[in-house]
Automatic annotation (TrEMBL):
<dbReference type="Pfam" id="PF01810">
    <property type="entry name" value="LysE"/>
</dbReference>
<feature type="transmembrane region" description="Helical">
    <location>
        <begin position="173"/>
        <end position="192"/>
    </location>
</feature>
<keyword id="KW-1003">Cell membrane</keyword>
<feature type="transmembrane region" description="Helical">
    <location>
        <begin position="68"/>
        <end position="88"/>
    </location>
</feature>
<feature type="transmembrane region" description="Helical">
    <location>
        <begin position="40"/>
        <end position="62"/>
    </location>
</feature>
<keyword id="KW-0812">Transmembrane</keyword>
<protein>
    <submittedName>
        <fullName>Threonine/homoserine/homoserine lactone efflux protein</fullName>
    </submittedName>
</protein>
<feature type="transmembrane region" description="Helical">
    <location>
        <begin position="116"/>
        <end position="132"/>
    </location>
</feature>
<feature type="transmembrane region" description="Helical">
    <location>
        <begin position="138"/>
        <end position="161"/>
    </location>
</feature>
<keyword id="KW-0472">Membrane</keyword>
<keyword id="KW-1133">Transmembrane helix</keyword>
<feature type="transmembrane region" description="Helical">
    <location>
        <begin position="6"/>
        <end position="28"/>
    </location>
</feature>
<dbReference type="InterPro" id="IPR001123">
    <property type="entry name" value="LeuE-type"/>
</dbReference>
Length: 193
């Protein structure tokens, strides 16, 4: 097993901007790090569950992958558009708790986030299963990858916390940019472009 390639793939896939990371950054900006960590915990649990499902059902999913991908693209695109709207409409004085910042939202986001779904469907079968087949080894890799995901999400919280004043001072522009990134992600996932 090429550990370097495995780690690079995990880090690039989890640390690069995606729908969950954009929501985390926006949550830190509007509700603080504590609320963002609630979302992170849900996102991490969803990420880990997807890794477990992928590992256990890899052969079955491979047979029906095109159907699952199409459904996930539609659901994921619609959910990302909803999140884009929520992020765009957040105001500086707005203090209400929106649905996109909860543990449950973080958990559900992972199941409709095509970036995460595709990553979890590919990482174990590509990098681990050719070399390790025991349940214990597969479980350990699921734990390792889940921890990498948690570190990635937490990094976005720290980044948002450090730059909170800057983010607050340029809130409308940043909300618009984050919403546009989510819309772009939704368009790319839907296959329109």
């Amino acid at each position: 097993m090429n550990i370097t390639s495995f780690l690079i793939y995990c880090v690039v896939a989890t640390f690069t901007p995606g729908p969950a990371n954009i929501v985390i950054l926006s949550t830190v900006q509007h509700f603080g790090a504590k609320k963002a960590m609630e979302y992170v915990c849900g996102a991490t649990m969803g990420f880990g569950l997807l890794l477990v499902v992928s590992t256990m059902l890899n052969r079955i999913l491979a047979d029906v992958f095109p159907n699952i991908l199409s459904i996930m693209q539609i659901i994921g695109s619609l959910y990302m558009l909803y999140l884009a709207y929520q992020v765009y409409k957040m105001g500086a004085t707005e203090a209400k708790d929106i649905q996109t910042t909860s543990f449950v939202s973080g958990l559900l986001m992972q199941f409709v986030n095509p970036k995460v779904v595709l990553f979890t469907l590919t990482v174990i079968p590509t990098f681990v299963m050719p070399y390790y087949t025991s349940s214990l080894a597969l479980f350990l890799f699921v734990i390792i990858i889940t921890l990498i995901g948690f570190l990635a999400f937490t990094t976005w919280v720290v980044f948002g916390r450090i730059f909170r004043r800057f983010l607050h001072n340029h809130q409308k522009v940043l909300n618009t940019l984050m919403a546009l990134f989510l819309v772009y992600s939704a368009i790319m996932v839907s296959g329109i472009l």
